Amino acid sequence: MKKHWWILGSLIALLALLVGTVAWQQQTSKQAAAPTKDSRTKQRTARSTVAKPKVKPWIKLKQPLKLPILMYHSISSGNQLRVPSRQFQQEMAYLQRHHYRTLTADEAVRALTTNTIPSKKVVWVTLDDAYKDNLTHGLPVLEQTKVHATINAITGFTHKANHLTLSEMKQMKATGRVDFASHTVQHLDLNEITAAQQKTELVNAKTWLDAKMHQNTKVLCYPAGRADGTTHRLAKQAGYSIALTTQEGLAQMSQGRYNLSRLRVTPGMTTATFASLLAVKNN
């Protein structure tokens, strides 16, 4: 009987020893795994010293900026306002191949109003009227060539079959290759309507774009490219920073911020002619 009790006691002692050993090993592992104050400091320091991509400062120009603003409409064929998709692809590929920085609407406003540029070679690609082929034929090219473009949308035309819907506009903006500016509500010739009607066209288009596209719309593009002093004043009051015409030439602030010129791209234009539109040096 005493022998049995001795065996039982030995087993209990052995079990206690095993349990104690396991507990000691677990505690030692936790202590080894737990970061010390010094190790935590080193980890934070290492994270803080990881190189972040540097954002190059914009270049301050000594001379007034001359900005090429390319003007497109439909990416199709049929008349002088329609540039075939193959030509559009070749021209956007030219911009990519020659390392042009294609500006967003906000970047263009910044460049023109501060006389600075993010790169020596800049261009602003614009498409008027927001035709549906800007999505079907234009967007794939922009994504392939990594070019950015601004579409001047007629906000009252989003229900028309040949124009972009709001959903399609949002889809294009989400790619990061397209943004949207105002081309008024009904695309009326502003020189042919009253000041009150002009104000409605300008204000309502901006309000719609700001709300629907979640942005602060800074750019106005005049229907038919025409405007007068009254329109310029109303554009400023409506909250636009700049406005675009169809006057031929490089955009310069000396023209007036609400009277900026653009460069029309026509169907059949040769690569050499296209390149000549961009032939400007900003210093």
Description:
This protein has a single domain, classed as Glycoside hydrolase/deacetylase (TIM Barrel, Alpha-Beta Barrel). Helices cover 44% and strands 15% of the residues. The chain has nine helices and ten strands. The chain has helices at 2-33, 37-48, 85-97, 105-114, 133-145, 166-174, 195-212, 229-238, 271-277, and strands at 59-60, 69-72, 101-102, 116-117, 122-128, 149-153, 178-182, 219-221, 242-248, 260-264. The longest helix has 32 residues, at 2-33. The chain is globular.
Topology overview:
Layout: H1 2-33, H2 37-48, E1 59-60, E2 69-72, H3 85-97, E3 101-102, H4 105-114, E4 116-117, E5 122-128, H5 133-145, E6 149-153, H6 166-174, E7 178-182, H7 195-212, E8 219-221, H8 229-238, E9 242-248, E10 260-264, H9 271-277
